[in-house]
Amino acid sequence: MTHPDDLYGFTRPELTERVASWGLSRVHAARIWRYLYWECVDSLGAMAELPAKVRSRLESETRLGALPVSREAHSTDGFTRKFLLGLADGREIETVLMRFTGRVTACVSSQAGCAMGCVFCATGQMGFARHLSAAEIIAQASHVARILHREGSRARLRNVVLMGMGEPLHNYEAVMRAVSILTDPSGFALGADRITLSTVGVVPGIRRLAEERRPVHLAVSLHSADQAERETLVPAARKWPLDELIGACRYYSERTGRRVFYEWTLIEGRNDSGEHARTVGRLLRGLKAQVNLIPLNPTGGYGGTPSHPEAARRFQRILTEEFSIPSTVRQRRGIDIAAGCGQLAGTG
Ligand code: SAH
Ligand code: SF4
Predict the structure, then answer these.
(1) Using one digit for the tens of pLDDT, what is the confidence trace for 159-176?
(2) Is 329 contained in some domain?
(3) Same domain flag for 125 and 182
(4) Residue span of the structural domain in which 218 resides
(5) Is the Cβ atom of 340 under 6 angstroms away from ligand 1?
(6) Which residue's CA is minimally distant from atom 4 of ligand 2?
(7) Which of 23, 53, 92, 287 has the fewest CB atoms found within 10 Å of its own CB?
(8) Do 200 and 221 touch, CB atoms closer than 8 A?
């Protein structure tokens, strides 16, 4: 598990407080923070310019939990790099670096495994191992930022999506601590519109996000707009039914003024007909919504196949023409490196 004093888990005020508690100037905390989030160092030893008294305190009382790479895969188009990172307890999680039009996005995991059991998802097929700490979430974003830094790239880490392994709203506290660290103006300084949290539909978590007006975009994995059908794909739907989920999304938009993104994994013959598109249109009528259509990435534990591009286009056309709901079809970049959630870890 994470060391309780892993520097990646500290907010800047906490780090400043800790340094002051050692009887040292707060200025050192600002320097340490820059080492972490501007220079992207991977060890305490690399903080070379710190006075010896600061370094010795850091080394005796804290850790820096940079995560070693167990495996790495690049997509043939060069836009996606996927890392399997090793945790201190030997478990492994996935982090993905994605480059779209010069912008770099880190896709990070929030749990090792997942308890939600979505039938088509490689992570769901593994089951739940444990929650990640905030430090382990930040270590993933730092890994991506470090790669850019070392390449001498002019691109900076611009976006973080919580769409890797795990259900972020099942690990609320750690995820929100990580969000505070990611948005710190002296660190990664990601704006409120730069972090997207994707949830299977944990209703109390969505309501809490809305209450607390957390600086994240919300994506909800819908996959079906019919309660009985959705339960067969997403078992968690039994606990948080569609009407409650949509109620929570409406509340979120009212409180935050934001639209909600609805994720829809397109599975041939399962949820990709014209009638399916109309059920979504009717369900989302009147809501601030955008639908993101993602052709299924086939996984070992599920027999479904991705929809044909023509089915995706028809789905999109119905949403636009009959319901005026904006939508995108996500390109299946990186499919050649098993870029679907949990799929690199699943191949052992
Ligand atoms: N647990 C959260 C976030 C992680 S999953 C959630 O479910 O939203 C991120 C996204 O990947 C979800 O929309 C999920 O439905 C989708 N996904 C999972 N397995 C997939 C697969 N095999 N093919 C396509 N999309 C998949
Ligand atoms: Fe968990 Fe998301 Fe996978 Fe469902 S799709 S099993 S919620 S990680």
Answers:
(1) 999 999 999 999 999 999
(2) yes
(3) yes
(4) 69-337
(5) yes
(6) 118
(7) 23
(8) yes
- Is any ligand 2 atom within 6 A of the Cβ of residue 166? yes
Assign 195 to helix, strand or coil: strand
| Overall domain count for the chain | 2
pLDDT in tens, 34-85: 999 999 999 999 999 999 999 999 999 999 999 999 999 988 888 899 999 9
Beginning with the edge strand found earlier in the chain, give each strand of the sheet holding 92-100 in spatial order. 69-74, 80-86, 92-100, 103-107, 157-162, 195-199, 217-221, 260-266, 289-295, 327-329
Choosing from 162, 220, 232, 341 the residue with most ligand 2 atoms within 8 A of its CB, the one to mutate for a pocket test is 341
- If asked whether residues 140 and 250 sit together in one domain, one would say yes
Residue 166 CA: which ligand 2 atom is closest? Answer: 8
Read off the CATH number of the domain in which 272 is found.
3.20.20.70
Check whether residue 31 and residue 120 sit in a common domain.
no
| 284 Cα to the center of ligand 2, angstroms | 22
- Give the residue among 46, 146, 71, 62 at the shortest CA–CA distance from 106: 146
Q: Is residue 100 domain-resident? A: yes
Report yes or no: 209 and 34 within 8 Å, Cβ to Cβ: no
By the 8 A CB rule, do 276 and 270 touch? no
Q: How far is the CA of 13 from the centre of ligand 2 (A)?
A: 33
Last residue of a domain, one of 44, 63, 82: 63
Does residue 65 line the site of ligand 2, with CB under 6 A? no
Last residue of a domain, one of 45, 63, 81: 63
Q: By C-alpha distance, which of 123, 122, 106, 112 is closest to 86?
A: 112
CATH of residue 14's domain is 1.10.150.530
Question: In ligand 2, which atom is closest to the CA atom of 200?
Answer: 7
Q: Is the CB of 121 under 6 A from ligand 2?
A: yes
Ligand nearest to the CA of 175: 1
In this structure, are residues 338 and 332 in contact, taking their beta carbons and an 8 Å threshold?
no
Going from the Cα of 301 to the center of ligand 2, the distance in angstroms, rounded, reads 14
The whole model's pTM is what? 0.96
Closest ligand to C-alpha of residue 224 is 1
